[in-house]
Structure formats: C-alpha cells, structure tokens
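re: the backbone from monday

yeah here it is again, tokenized this time
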C-alpha cells in the first residue's frame, strides 16, 4: 500500500496570521476533537500490544519508549510518571529520546538521523526478549527509532509503534503491533506537536495505565501504591484509609506513614486487626 505522509500535508486552514485569537483557539479546538476519535479507532491494536506486554512485565520485562523531539519527550514523560503514580521502580518503563536528556529542553541537531544510536542505547540496558520496544514517531520515518526497532525485532524482542501516518516504514516493516492514529493534517502545517502529540500522550496513558492496573498496582479505582512525596498525596492516602476502615484522620495518617503506602497499610491493618 502507498505510504502517504499525512503529517506533512497542508493544513485545512489558511491565513492563520489574519485570524483573531478567538478564531485560532476555536479552530485548534475543532481539530483536537478529531484526536479522541482517531485514538478510539486504534483501540484494537492498542489492546493487542498491552495484552502482550502484561505477561512480559509480570515476568520482569521492561517497556522502552523511543522517540525524537516531541515524541521522545512524551515517552520520557509517561515513563517518569510510573514511579510516583504506581510505586514502581524507574526501571520498568524507560523513555529514551534521540539526543539524550539535553533534547528534553533543547533540540539536538541531527540526533534523530543517527541510525545506530538507538540500539546502542537499548544495549546499555541489556535489553532481552522479556522486554518491549515502542517506537513513537508521528511521521513513522525517524531513523533513530526505526533502526533500533529493526535490531530489537531481530533479537526476538516485541516491538510496537505509535504513528500518525498509514503504512509508514516504522509501522509496516518494524513493528509487530503497529498503532496508526490518523489525526489528519495539523493546524499549523507539519507541526506534529499538536494533534499527533496529543494523541500520542493519550495512547501512552492507555498503555501504561492498563498495564499497571492489570499487574495489580491499583485497588478498585485508587492509586494504592503511589509514592507519598508531598502533603497532597499523604492526605489522599489518609482519606483512602479512612474510607476503607472508618478510622479518624490522625489514626489513618499514622498508619499510612508507618507503612509507607496505602496498600501496605491496608495489608497490615487487615493482618493485625489493628
């Protein structure tokens, strides 16, 4: 099938520089409404990928996000939220961005064009067939990502991808489970930080959250393994224990701080009958 680079097609809007602020905002919002629908259409592929990731993570496998520019930053962002939200070590979901941490704030010239660097970075983590590599690239053509996925696949490692172009080189040749989220041309032509970036974040949320729920890091609808890194989260955890055991606030807070997480506090309370 023909590879059509939708991400480079002209915007459906013109004369942006002549529009009022209100018109610009309304136009962007109109386009953003298309993102959720595009993600919904991709759910069957997202489900396939998550279903394959879960047993790998349960057996000690890791998930590597790889991308350049906005795509790489979003992968690092999602991975960095797993420890505080679900109490997992930072070695379960790992975000790699072309150009390294410098590229999180500043563009690194030609970083995405390095064809060997991606696999070199994965190799530093002693990647193995228990792991999963998810390439993130709106264009589906980023050499840093594609080359790493190709080599990972040769080593028997599960590969997935998130792209905004149908039948891209990344999705068609290098991903076991391609996720094609077709959001259409961007409001500012070629600016994939907009709809494509929004959709990527939504899908990354779905992947990581679904995996964490399925491996037991959520109880009911609550983040019972969240890290207690500030007063807001301590208060949240305290109220979870109040709801669970009908304790007063000070009792619940003391129990939480003693055991360090809502889940451990619940287990201790139930086992000891405190």
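seq for it, each position gets an aa:
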């Amino acid at each position: 099938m023909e590879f059509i680079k939708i991400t480079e097609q002209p915007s459906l809007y013109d004369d942006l520089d002549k529009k009022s602020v209100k018109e610009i905002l309304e136009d962007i919002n109109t386009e953003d409404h298309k993102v959720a629908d595009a993600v919904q259409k991709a759910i069957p592929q997202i489900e396939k990928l998550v279903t394959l990731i879960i047993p790998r993570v349960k057996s000690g496998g890791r998930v590597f996000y790889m991308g350049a520019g906005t795509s790489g930053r979003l992968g690092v962002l999602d991975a960095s939220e797993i420890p505080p939200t679900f109490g997992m070590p930072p070695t379960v979901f790992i975000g790699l961005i072309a150009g390294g941490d410098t590229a999180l704030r500043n563009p690194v010239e030609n970083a995405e064009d390095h064809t060997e660097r991606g696999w070199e970075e994965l190799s530093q983590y002693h990647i193995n067939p228990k792991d999963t590599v998810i390439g993130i690239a709106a264009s589906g053509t980023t050499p840093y990502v594609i080359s790493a996925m190709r080599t990972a696949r040769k080593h028997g490692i599960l590969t997935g991808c998130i792209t905004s172009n149908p039948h891209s080189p990344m999705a068609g040749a290098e991903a076991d489970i391609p996720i094609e989220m077709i959001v259409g041309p961007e409001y500012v032509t070629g600016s994939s930080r907009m709809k494509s970036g929004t959709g990527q974040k939504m899908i990354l949320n779905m992947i990581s959250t679904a995996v964490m729920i399925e491996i037991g890091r959520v109880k009911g609808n609550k983040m019972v393994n969240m890290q207690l890194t500030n007063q807001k989260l301590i208060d949240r955890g305290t109220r979870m224990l109040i709801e669970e055991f009908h304790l007063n606030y000070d009792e619940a807070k003391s129990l939480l701080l003693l055991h360090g997480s809502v889940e451990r506090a619940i287990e201790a309370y139930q086992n000891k009958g405190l």
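The chain has eleven helices and five strands. The mean pLDDT is 96.
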